[in-house]
Amino acid sequence: MFSKKISLILKKNFLILSIFFILQSCGSWNPPDVKDSPINDADMRKRNIEEGRGITFGGKKGGSGNFDFATSNEMWRATLQILDFVPLSTADYGGGIIITDWYSDDLDSKESIKIMVNFLSNEIRADGIDIKVYKKICNQNFKCNTQLIKSNISNDIKLAVLKKAAQIKKQDGKKRAKDNNYTIVPSKE
After folding, report:
1. Range of 114's domain?
2. Contacts of residue 154, Cβ cutoff 8 Å, sequence gap at least 6
3. pTM listed for this prediction
4. Total of domains in the chain
5. 60 domain residue, yes or no
6. Given 1, 64, 69, 115, which is the most exposed site by the fewest CB atoms within 10 A?
7. What is the dihedral of CA 156, 159, 160, 164, to 10 degrees?
């Protein structure tokens, strides 16, 4: 008899606590004003993106400024591999730019260089990448003069990037073919 009363009290308390927690978690509902909410889907998507609530997968392909993900872009990967000896200041894949920090072989040198790489295309082409090299010369009072170098350094870097990107693309093609059990027949060029 005594255990039935305790069991009944425990069940009541559990039920009351459960209802309390359920009601507590609900909170108050504040519906949005109709005049502030767009009616059509295009306006709703636009508002969500402006408020940072949007997410996009894929997107429009082709055209300038549209870049694939960094691991699939051979030009990006090749540039990072070629410039691995220089510390990077900025690497913005979305903006298609890599900027190195000032670099010098000798710590006591008053001269240093900075390399800026702009990606103009995803394709492995000479006009798909723009490389500028800047030189900074400082005097004893640490007054520095910075200028764009008009030499073969940028062309040498561009050539090295293009060669490396072609190698990466070839290796990726072989790997994909191997993963998909395809055989590669050499061309008769």
Report:
1. 70-178
2. 115, 131, 132, 133
3. 0.56
4. 1
5. no
6. 1
7. 170
